[in-house]
Every structure is written in structure tokens, then in C-alpha cells.
Design a protein that fits this description.
A hairpin with a 7-residue loop joins β17 and β18. The longest helix has 20 residues, at 184-203. The strands form four sheets. Strands 2, 3, 4, 5, 6, 7, 8, 9 and 10 form a nine-stranded parallel beta sheet that branches. The chain has eleven helices and 21 strands. By secondary structure, it is α/β, with parallel strands linked by helices.
């Protein structure tokens, strides 16, 4: 679908949908590109369905706007992009699973690797095809998840030489807390450990084209790790994720939250039922809301299966006819109740904005994440597959 819905073109479907503003997405990419400079490559991270925004449509626009690479978590995500016509290089950030090496080569996906059995599998598959496969070696400099430990790099690099059908075209690591000033010493250690790892690989004869550390937070908080293209051991590529989608207020460190990124997703529904509830009566599961006055209750067809988290029960709010209205009662799987007593001239089928802005009011993903005790990424990633995305 290629345009935002109206009352007319939502006929024949449940009136709950997400709107994705690709112009905002493009503008956010340009902020990153301007910040890091022309000599630094930008890998746009579109894993997890582009953080819930729709990977194919977002990748197509980002490719047109000058993204140099795409980052996905799984080969399946990369294959989806290739089948949709995306041609830029794609890195599988989490590597690949047993039996997927041949598919990585077939679809020209570059895996991040950190175990010898993975390297042996991709080397064997490349040999069978008469190819040399590019890989990026992931170094664990302090995150503690995936990667070759920084203090084992020398032995690892030496042992790699027996594989003749792979090329180490990239070295990478991942910051654990670039957004936390209190964790500054760890971040500096990670930079130092990574640069040492790059030096070790170079000493052993490797010449990786790409060196990358910085996620969204690192790009703005750690400039020395986001664009040292004039140094053989410094970074020359960055991996923005959340900031591309206008998620930054709870991701960037406090000193850099004045950036002017634009939110890309908004979430909408319509009132499907209005009813008056007398004072003293409860609504919703568990009797968690009792009306203190005669209350006009609106039911909307959206619930926690759609990604409107149950943790927002009795705490969330919506924008209806230019005013804020409060979520009341427990959010259920398919339905949510809202107190619209103070909404002027409220009517059946009125638009309800759960995430987004209208009439000078706004509800941000960061705000919803804070209420629910999580972060903005989980808010947008959680918007379910049964919620159609409309792109403009």
C-alpha cells in the first residue's frame, strides 16, 4: 500500500493501522550521513522488520537515499530483501545457522562470523561454488554476547589462514553502553580493544575493507569510533538503527538528545463503540478501573496482540479530536477502552492516535516505553503483523 488511509480506503478491514513516513526515514538517514561525513560508509540496520516499520519498503527508500550497506539479523531477512530487489551489500549481524551457508552465497549475503565451524561451513560452500566468500569477523570487546574474545584474537587470526575460500573483508564489534556516560571507561576500553584487534589482523596479513563499531548511540557519543577513515585501525563504517526510525530520546546519551530526528511510525485506530457507564461501575478484566463519575467509554479494536502493551493499562493515553484521552481498564488481546467523557463532540468512528502527533499534541514511542518500563525499540518492534502498514 502506498498512501496513508482515509475513512474511505479503510473500508473492508479492521480500522487499525500504522502509518510509515518514508520522507522522515530519508531525512533521518541524511542527518547520520551529514554527521559522519562522506568518507564513512553507512550501514542502515533494517533487522526485525526495520524495527517494526516494514523492512522491504524501508530498505528500498534507504537504498535510494544513499545507504551503503544493510544490516539484518538473520539470513532469512536478507533473502527477503534480495527477493524484493535490494542490491546493496547486506551483512547478517548474527551470522547464520547450520545449513544456511550456501544460501548466504546464493543471495550474496555477507555473514558476521565468530566460530570456526561457521567459518568452515562458509569456506566449504564457497569452495564448492568456485568462489571466495566475504565475511566480517566479530570481536567481543566487552558486550559478552557474540564474537571472538578480544584477548584471543591473535590465535584466532592465525588459525584463519587455513581457510582458502574466505576473505576477511570486515572487522566489527558492538558497544555495550555507548549511551551511558557512567559506562564511559568500558566504552573506551572497547574502542582500544577493537583497534588492537584490527592491528593484530593487519600484522597477520589481513586487509579488511570495513571496520565498524558504532550503533546509533556510538555514532553521536563516540566520534573517534565513528569515522577515523584516515587511520588503518580506526572505524570507516557506522551502523545506525533506531535513529533512522526517529527513535532517539531514550537511545542517545543525554548530551546528544537535542538531535532533530523525525518519528517514522504512527499508530491509529477508530472508535467502534461508545457507551455510558455509571459511577461506581467497573470496566475491563480484573475490575482495575472503577468509574468515579458517569463516564463515556470508547472501545477501539486494538490490543496487546497488536503491540499495544498490557503494561499501558490504566496508564496510556490517546489523541482524539485534539485532546488527550486516558486508557482505562486492562488492555485485552484485541480491544482497548478509553475514557472520552471530556472529548468534545466525540463520535463513533473517530480516529484514535495511540502513537504519533496531531493538533499540536504528541505521543512518542519513548514516552510509551517509559510508561511500560521498556524502551522505544520494543514499542515499534512490537506492533504486530496483523496491523497493516501504510507507506507514504
Amino acid at each position: 500500500m502506498s498512501s496513508f488511509p482515509t475513512r474511505n480506503n479503510t473500508a473492508g478491514q479492521r480500522p487499525t493501522w500504522a502509518e510509515i513516513d518514508r520522507n522522515a526515514l530519508a531525512a533521518n538517514l541524511q542527518i547520520v550521513k551529514s554527521h559522519v561525513g562522506a568518507d564513512v560508509s553507512v550501514m542502515a540496520v533494517v533487522k526485525a522488520n526495520a524495527y517494526g516499520h516494514g523492512a522491504v519498503e524501508c530498505a528500498r527508500r534507504l537504498e535510494a537515499e544513499g545507504a551503503d550497506w544493510f544490516g539484518v539479523a538473520l539470513p532469512e531477512e536478507g533473502i527477503e530483501l534480495r527477493n524484493a530487489g535490494v542490491t546493496k551489500p547486506i551483512l547478517c549481524l548474527a551470522g547464520f545457522w547450520e545449513g544456511q551457508a550456501a544460501a548466504c552465497l546464493q543471495y550474496k549475503l555477507v555473514p558476521a562470523v565468530y566460530r570456526f565451524d561457521l567459518i568452515e561451513a562458509i569456506d566449504s560452500a564457497a569452495r564448492e561454488r568456485g568462489e571466495v566468500a566475504d565475511v566480517h569477523i566479530k570481536i567481543d570487546t566487552g558486550m559478552g554476547r557474540l564474537g571472538v574474545r578480544f584477548d584471543e584474537v591473535n590465535d584466532f587470526a592465525g588459525a584463519l589462514k587455513r581457510f582458502k575460500n574466505i576473505r576477511v573483508d570486515g572487522l566489527m564489534t558492538h558497544f555495550a553502553a555507548a549511551d551511558e556516560p557512567s559506562c564511559g571507561p568500558l566504552t573506551k576500553d572497547q574502542i582500544r580493544r577493537f583497534e588492537h584487534a584490527v592491528a593484530v589482523f593487519r600484522e597477520q596479513g589481513y586487509r579488511p575493507s570495513y571496520r565498524h563499531l558504532s550503533n546509533s548511540a556510538g555514532i553521536f557519543a563516540q566520534p573517534e569510533a565513528s569515522g577515523n577513515s584516515d587511520r588503518e585501525t580506526g572505524a570507516n563504517m557506522v551502523r545506525p538503527g533506531g535513529v533512522l526510525y526517529g527513535l532517539w530520546r531514550d537511545i542517545l546519551d543525554p548530551a546528544h538528545r537535542d538531535q532533530e530526528f523525525q518519528p517514522v511510525m504512527s499508530l491509529h485506530s477508530r472508535i467502534t463503540l461508545l457507551k455510558w457507564v455509571p459511577a461506581g461501575e467497573t470496566v475491563g478484566y480484573g475490575c482495575t478501573f472503577e468509574a468515579s463519575r458517569k463516564t463515556l467509554v470508547a472501545t477501539i479494536p486494538l490490543g496487546y496482540d497488536d503491540g499495544y502493551m498490557r503494561a499501558l493499562s490504566n496508564r496510556g493515553h490517546a489523541i482524539i479530536r485534539g485532546v488527550y484521552a486516558t486508557v482505562i481498564g486492562r488492555i485485552s488481546m484485541d480491544l482497548t477502552l478509553i475514557d472520552v467523557t471530556n472529548v468534545p463532540d466525540v463520535q463513533l468512528d473517530d480516529r484514535v492516535i495511540l502513537l504519533g502527533q496531531a493538533d499540536g499534541l504528541s505521543i512518542t514511542a519513548e514516552e510509551l516505553g517509559k510508561i511500560a518500563g521498556t524502551l522505544s525499540y520494543e514499542v515499534t518492534c512490537g506492533v504486530g503483523s496483523r496491523v497493516p502498514r501504510f507507506f507514504a
